[in-house]
Amino acid sequence: MDRMNQSHNTPRGRRRPARSERPRAGSGAGHRLLAVRPAGLASAVWLILLAAFLASIACSERAIAADATDEQTDGEQTDGEQTDGEQTDGDQQAASAEVHLSLVGGEVARGTLVAVDESGVSLAMPDGDRRFPLDQVLGLRTVDTAGTSGGPEDGSPTSADASPVESASVWLELTDGSRVPAAACTMDDDEAKLTLLDSSKLVIPAKAVRAARFDRPGAEMDEAWGDLLRQQREADRLIVRRGDTLDYHRGIVHGMNDEVVFFELDGETLDVKREKLFGLALLRPTAAELPPGAFRLIDRAGGSWVLQSVEGGRQLTWTTPAGVRRTAPVAGIARIDFSGGKVVYLSELEPRRVAWQPYFPTGEQLPCREKLFAPRMDQGPRGDPLCLDGVQYARGIALHSRAELEYLLPDQYQRLRAKVGIDESVRPHGDARLLIEGDGKPLADLRVRGTEPPGELDLEIEGIRRLTITVDFADGLDLGDWVTLADIKVTK
User: Fold this and answer.
1) pLDDT tens track for 144-165
2) 313 in Cβ contact with 454 (< 8 Å)
3) What's the DSSP call for residue 78?
4) What letters, b where the CB count within 10 A reaches 16 and e where it falls short, cover 107-140?
5) CA separation for the pair 193, 325 (Å, rounded)
6) CA–CA separation, 413 vs 460, rounded Å?
């Protein structure tokens, strides 16, 4: 207490030293001053040690945070960003997707896609990378990590290729023949903006859209819709359904949003609610006026694309003859048909109608019995490969009497070809009648027996839209009546 008084109260008659006269740190006077204040020295030392300790803790925390940040940067990816050397989820799935190539000679090559371009396809296979020239490749299909196949081995499209389309609100057909279901679509005079079924966005030129269908596709109206689109038209058409028929109004479509179509009729632009419409048919160039499509690609978002080119590895980028360009991971692809559209196998197509009846009718059709004798696509009667005269076939249809299939054929195909006989698995049994009709007119009426060798089928089908194939009873009840139509296809 006395020291505190001395330090703050100068005895009368004595002068307080000026600041410049006070002892400096390191001088002898300074040492004497510190010597008389031991408590102040201890406090200073303690504060210095405490500050150093706290600083070391802070440094350690910063180092730990930095290490954690580095690990996150190495092992994770920020939402919405992609940096060099990192993979998006789509890339990782694409890298792990199994790819099957169907080759001209009938072989199937399996591996991971390395690259595809205009000259060929490269796969990473167990024995190393291998290159397949494109003229030797019929098709490509993918198998995802869950084991879901993209379809038949040759990679050509089927109606079942696409992912479920329940969420689609519009089905677009492009001028090059591509078909794209979309969850949402808006369009003006210049461009159409799509939200696809995999939630990705796509902007395409409005002039590339040939038609838009708002009514869900189904066998009931598919034929009428197709016939209407094939008609020559001098203006845009607003299509409505009247009972079992389709009718239309001529005018100019200026665009649409999710609610209405902007339709000019007699000089007045109307807002027509989409819910009242079946679809739109637009005045556009025909596919014949565009560059030819070389391939067809089916993606898992429901799209069926006619391709002018395709290239890439883990990510594929393709361009259509209408000028539409899209990129997707290989795992998002179901299949690619490299046959150039010159061949379509009937087993790829969805039959418009399937019927079967037993030799001895029962009062009620039993589901298990129907399944046992149902048509087999790309497989024999017992689920094994189709086989005729000792030769196995990857493509074809096996039908048991009495079965009937009806197809709507694609345009511009001229011939129907197949190898026909009783399947090897049931010979020498089997005696059936094969009838083929086109638009209700007979094309072929053949007797097929298990005691006879297979035969060739080659029929003219130019201009035919509806094809009906019937395997009927002959002699010997229905024992062994499994007729195999191996490699049955339509060709241009």
Assistant:
1) 655 555 554 444 433 334 444 5
2) no
3) -
4) eebebbbbbbeeeebbbeeeeeeeebeeeebbbb
5) 13
6) 9
User: pLDDT tens digits, residue range 287-342?
Assistant: 667 888 888 999 988 899 999 999 999 899 999 999 999 999 998 999 999 986 66
> Could you check whether the bond before residue 428 is cis, i.e. omega within 30 degrees of 0?
yes
Cβ atoms 121, 109 nearer than 8 A: no
For the domain made up of 346-491, the CATH class stated in words is mainly beta
Q: Which residue has the tokens 């790819």?
A: 99
* Contact between 170 and 275 (Cβ < 8 Å): no
pTM of the model: 0.57
Q: Please write down the HEC assignment for all residues of 122-164.
A: EEEECCEEEEEEHHHEEEEEEECCCCCECCCCCCCCCCCCCCC
From CA 196, how far away is CA 328, in angstroms rounded? 12
Report the alpha-carbon distance of residue 180 to residue 195 in Å, rounded: 10
* Residue extents of the structural domains in the chain: 346-491
DSSP state for residue 331 in the 8-state scheme: G
How far apart, in whole angstroms, are the C-alpha atoms of residue 438 and residue 223?
15
